[in-house]
Amino acid sequence: MATNQLKEPPKRLQYPLDSSSYKLLNEIGAGVSAVVYKAICIPMNSAAVAIKSIDLDRSRPDLDDVRREAKTLSLLSHPNILKAHCSFTVDRRLWVVMPFMAAGSLQSIISHSHPNGLTEPCIAVVLRDTLNALSYLHGQGHLHRDIKAGNILVDTNGQVKLADFGVSASIYESSTCSSLKFTDVAGTPYWMAPEVIHSHTGYSFKADIWSFGITALELAHGRPPLSHLPPSKSMMLKITKRFRFSDLDKYRKGNGNKFSKAFKDMVASCLDQDPSKRPTADKLLKHPFFKNCKGTDFLVKNVLLGLPSVEKRYKESKVNEHADGGGHNDDDDDDDEDPAMQVKERRISGWNFNQDGLELDPVFPNDDAGAKKSELGGESVMRKMEELVNVGGSEAGNGGGGVKKREKMLATLNVLKGSLEQELLEVKFLLNMIRGEEENDRDQVVAAASADHNEEKEISMLRAALENERKKNLQLELQLHNCKIQLSSLNISN
Ligand SMILES: Nc1ncnc2c1ncn2[C@@H]1O[C@H](COP(=O)(O)OP(=O)(O)OP(=O)(O)O)[C@@H](O)[C@H]1O
């Protein structure tokens, strides 16, 4: 009606920007550099709020970036996006005041009540609403950069909202946009897309889609893939370099069969190694998996009913953590391992999604597996090339058969070339990692002046590792060079 159209839009309530207007009630969560509290806002009729208090010394944000981001955020509005009421600094902490989502995050729900994951119809509701939020964000030209169950919040009425947008983007990212810096502050890179780990090109919309796929696995299995690996400063190396077989067994749940083909297909499309092949959020929303998706009341009946409050769950999780002896040891590094265990480790060059098992499979450099990615290690590449050259020489004058052989060689050499290029990228990535760690250690040694023996030992070990990687790099460049010569000579003779 005309009268309705003339009505002023409801004014947004301005939450006070001073800490004395708020009363902190309980701690309800904690991340690497932030603590989340349930609180009340006294001048707002004691309305319940959640306050994320971020340690600015640990997260080193550019406050101008935070302000700019907050301003952009205030212009966004979507039912599935949690918008902060306001933010302000309190000493060396940034307080982000948000609506209180009484059921907490999906991560806290599954870790408390569904350790083996949610059922598919519940997953569908959560993922559909998350995709609605993502589709809106991407449509407005924004990335989320931190999609995970810990950032999907639920209210008691089953409403699902994506949180931490903007805050994570500007606070947790260094201005140089180096994805490796992520390990300093944000903890675990389990949700990171391969292109974000392996290159310095940074984030794209499709990296959000990869994280969305990992979140689907997290909701289905109760935790993200590889999360049993202890968090430590070498986390990135652990993910990209070595893999313990005992961990592989622990990780395998063997429950891939309980999931529908539609779900597996939807996750597989998000976890394509090639970002350009991953669907957009809009396209995903049309996937058959979301057909006949239930409403939010379904979540209330099947997940929220009987669930203890978020504060109670957090308290219990703290008690359990203490009983377990504090969980993972941060300094846990496989280098101290029993030598027998080390033998069981192999370098890995990446991860492939295993659609049937609904899990990630490690890719080992020496696996032949169709030689479609970087599975070929340096030595076997050389052997393969020698074989090819020998075959090529003896077949050269054999008319039609020779041409066919040559085409086959050409195709194989192209695969080898691709494989070497990828291997080279990975070695470069490792070199950067090692250089970064070496620099950090060097700073610490200078600061510690008296320098204890262990650190020096560690540095020399890192130097040796760096030297090894350098040699390997050289060798790979050489092999690549030979491969290119081989290819161009074949192209010319064809
Ligand atoms: N607005 C909110 N309402 C209710 N609970 C919340 C709210 N924000 C966060 N929480 C709870 O606090 C927990 C920790 O939040 P935080 O944002 O620190 O989580 P995280 O994303 O897992 O950590 P990090 O972002 O540091 O990796 C969440 O898992 C959730 O249960």
Summary of the model, kept short:
By secondary structure, this protein is α+β, with helices and mostly antiparallel strands.
Note down, in words, how this protein is organized.
This protein has 494 residues and is α+β, with helices and mostly antiparallel strands. Strand 11 and strand 12 form a beta hairpin. The strands form four sheets. A five-stranded antiparallel β-sheet has the order 1-2-3-5-4. The protein has a three-stranded antiparallel β-sheet with strand order 6-7-8. Helix 5 packs antiparallel against helix 9, helix 5 packs across helix 14 and helix 9 packs antiparallel against helix 12. It has 19 helices and twelve strands. The N terminus is likely disordered. Helices cover 50% and strands 13% of the residues. Bound molecules: adenosine-5'-triphosphate (ATP). The site of adenosine-5'-triphosphate has 23 residues, from strand 1, strand 2, strand 3, strand 6 and helix 4. Pfam families: Pkinase. It comes from Vigna mungo (Black gram). This is Protein kinase domain-containing protein. GO terms for molecular function: ATP binding; protein kinase activity; protein serine/threonine kinase activator activity.
Summarize this structure as a short list of keywords or feature phrases.
single chain; 494 residues; alpha+beta; 19 helices; 13% strand; binds adenosine-5'-triphosphate
Q: What is the terminal-to-terminal distance? A: 76 Å
Helix content: 40-55%
Give the distinct bound molecules. adenosine-5'-triphosphate
Outline type: globular
> What is the count of DSSP helices, taking H or I runs of 4+ residues?
19
Largest sheet: 5 strands, antiparallel
Strand order of the largest sheet: 1-2-3-5-4
Structural class: alpha+beta
The portion of residues forming beta strands comes to: 5-15%
The tally of beta strands, per DSSP, is 12
Segments where pLDDT lies below 50 for 5+ residues? 1-9, 167-188, 231-235, 240-246, 327-346, 367-382, 391-399
Radius of gyration based on Cα positions? 26 Å
**Could you tell me the mean pLDDT?**
73
